[in-house]
Hints:
Blueprint: E1 14-16, E2 27-28, H1 35-41, E3 48-57, E4 60-72, E5 78-83, H2 91-96, H3 99-103, E6 108-115, E7 120-132, E8 140-150, E9 157-162, H4 169-181, E10 186-189, H5 197-204, H6 208-215, H7 228-242, H8 247-256, H9 258-273
Helix pairs in contact: 7-9, 8-9
Amino acid sequence: MAHELDFSTGDPAIAYIGDTPWHGFGEKLPEGQPIEAWLKAARLEWDLKRLPVQYLVDGRLRTMEDRFVLVRSDTQGALSVVSGDYQIVQPKEILEFYRDLVDIFGYTLETSGALDGGRKVWALARTPTYTSVDGQGEDTLAAYVLLATSCDKTLATTAAFTSIRVVCQNTLSFAMKDISTGKRPQEKVPHNLRFHPDRVKERLGIMDKAWGEFMMPGQEMKSAKGTLWGAVNAVTYYTDHVRPGTGVDRLDSAWFGTGYALKEKAWAKASELVGR
């Protein structure tokens, strides 16, 4: 599967700490580096510029009304065409989102970078909290807070909890699926609205409360206990975290193999029972 990392500058636009990503690209950083170091290592020290769309007709240069091209400030590459109400989220804003989380609340930036020529930008931080999913402390689940955006309208600016370590397009897709199917706490800001980092963090409940909700098996929630929804969530929890298998094998099964089929069967049966 293609990683789709941005190589516009000649170097891969990804920085990370810890384990080397599966594709082998990126600049490894020691822990505790400032945001400025992450921006440089992840090749995100550029801005999006909004320029009018122009075209040539019969030798005359004309300008489109309410249409603009978004251009990288470093390579001058055109990334997309947008309308006048499009709100730009700069690459720097993605990493800046984590500054107080890292400095004050003990989060650890783990990966950051750009995909598809810079059309998508993401950063991922590990929260200070872990939990054991096997009851013995051998299989732990880390809570990451992902912030990702696009400038080609393929992805709203999204902040969410996930258990997926994002290092490329494939893992970003996996994380977005994890967020959606796992009902992870998330906040999405469409590109016709301005991105306000503090509001997003407040709504996401970025501290311990949101982590607790992230970890709570759905069948134990008051709104789900004793219901079909709770039963479906119980199957999901068993498949993803209890069923034999660890690491990549369990993940592959949960998303693509027998685990996925089991969850689909549970959902189909629940839908049948309620007459859907």
